Amino acid sequence: MLKRCSSATQLKQLHAHIFRLNLHKSNSLATTLLSLYASFSLTSYAHFIFTSASHPNLFLFNHAIRALSKDPPLCFTSLRLYRQMICTQIRPDNFTYPFLLNSCASLPDLNHGTEIHGRIVRTGFCSYLPVFNALIDMYGKCNELILSRKAFNEMGGRDIVSYNALLGAHARVGEDMLNAQKVFDQMDYKSQISWNAMIVGYVNSGDLDSARALFDKMPDRNIVSWTTMLVGYTKKGLIDLASHLFEAIPERNLIIWTAMISGCAQHGRPREALEYFQRMEKARLRPDSFTMTAVISSLSQLGRADLANWIGTCVDKEGIERNERILTAMVDMHAKCGNLEEACRLFEEIHRPDVYPYSALITGLASHGHGFKALELFKRMQAEKVNPDYITFMGVFTACTHTGLVEDGLRYWEIMVADYGIEPDASHYACIVDMLGRAGRLDEAYKWVRAMPMGPGPGALGALLAACKIHGNVEIAENVAEQLFEMEPKNTGNFVLLSSIYASNGQWDKAESVREGIKARRVTKLPGCSWVEVDRKLRATRSER
After folding, report:
1. Which class for 115: exposed (0-12), middle (13-18), buried (19 or more C-beta within 10 A)?
2. Which letter does DSSP use for residue 74 in this model?
3. Which of 11, 84, 119, 516 places its Cα 20 to 30 Å from the Cα of 17?
4. Facing residues of 528 across strands?
5. How far apart, in whole angstroms, are the C-alpha atoms of residue 387 and residue 483?
6. Does an H or E element contain 162, and which?
7. Rg over CA atoms, the chain
8. Distance between CA 80 and CA 89 in Å, rounded?
9. What angle is formed at CA 407 by the lines to CA 404 and CA 409, rounded to 5 degrees?
10. What is the pLDDT of residue 545?
11. Helix 160-173 vs helix 177-186: angle between axes, to the nearest 10 degrees?
12. Does the global pTM surpass 0.70?
């Protein structure tokens, strides 16, 4: 009757009947029940069956360890059962070890894996092919490519699982693909797993040309092949190549669509991300939280408050849980769109906000003229023992800049370096230079620029040049502009700004000379661009003047 159970409900009913008859302590019945619960992915029930057995035998131990090894949250429990086996003088056999090694691979847990490897050697189970295959896989998933290859080389006989396990080890770390290719070429038969492992390895190593060459030779591609190649292109920012590949995919699932949308969003092409999302909707595929996070990121870049409100409605309509990932993305989106009231409301919905929502809201408040609120939020962040990151401090410095709290800004710099051990980058220096420059402390700001360990960058120099315009300092402006012209010879803004500084100080000849220099360098001003929505599609309008 147990083996004829077609649902978890039926199984639970029979289990209750067995329990009432006090038959649940039988190792034979317990093993059958455990296996059936595992087949319905009810691993916690399977574990309960095991714990109910008064004297579990090797067969029951093996089935319990196998079930637990397939459920990542319970893999460590399977290793505890192994300890229990040893303590009760039950010797593991050639079926036990592969399941244990699978648990070590899932965690991953190299220490337990090497300990189990040692016991395998001592107890003479090295000759069993599934044991060695599991060893290769375990070392590979623990990122120990050398040990994985060593186990492969020590094998007496190999099958396709052995080869695929080693190729998978190379693929995971994306290293030594030359040797991986040699192993691949030695294989008499190559499965889809073999081909995909090689493509993943080349993608992870950054060699997209070799990945594409194998992809094109692959006799039978599956969704993993297409997804791997697509993600390889999007991660490198090769969106046009990704787009061409995307159009060639015969059947696109949600993962494919999300990869394309995310790629566009991450590489500054938000309009295209939204177009793909609209196409996905027409294909009647329902988005998940990962898809919506990518779409929300795109809207953050566009800064469209109306679309920000629309996507919130879309999240609820699709029944997507407002988890921390979604709420954080929505806080960032509304903050960047200037909808600060909604950003603050969503922030409060997050049960225990970490550094990401804090940073997003602090930066949004600071950038939209609410510096004091941003600093209050930062103090709350400190009180709640949430460690800020480098983005948080950029928001804090921006808040100090717009509120004129220069000394507080310099104090926060010391806190960032001394208390949190954050090494300042060029963006942090640019914030401080901007803060000092706006406050009229130009000489001090110039000292910060010259003290930058990575050398003055366009951000800091541009902030100082803008401050020179505000306060009419021609001398520093000339020095700074000279460096900017070398760094950004085609940036007309720097030329126009210096010309304006000269004009403001009545130095008309110099102002005209700079403008003539723009013409001589054949530098053209970039056209302005804005976005409008037509029939639910975003279209760019440009000003050529």
Report:
1. middle
2. G
3. 84
4. 543
5. 36
6. helix 160-173
7. 31
8. 14
9. 75
10. 45
11. 160
12. yes
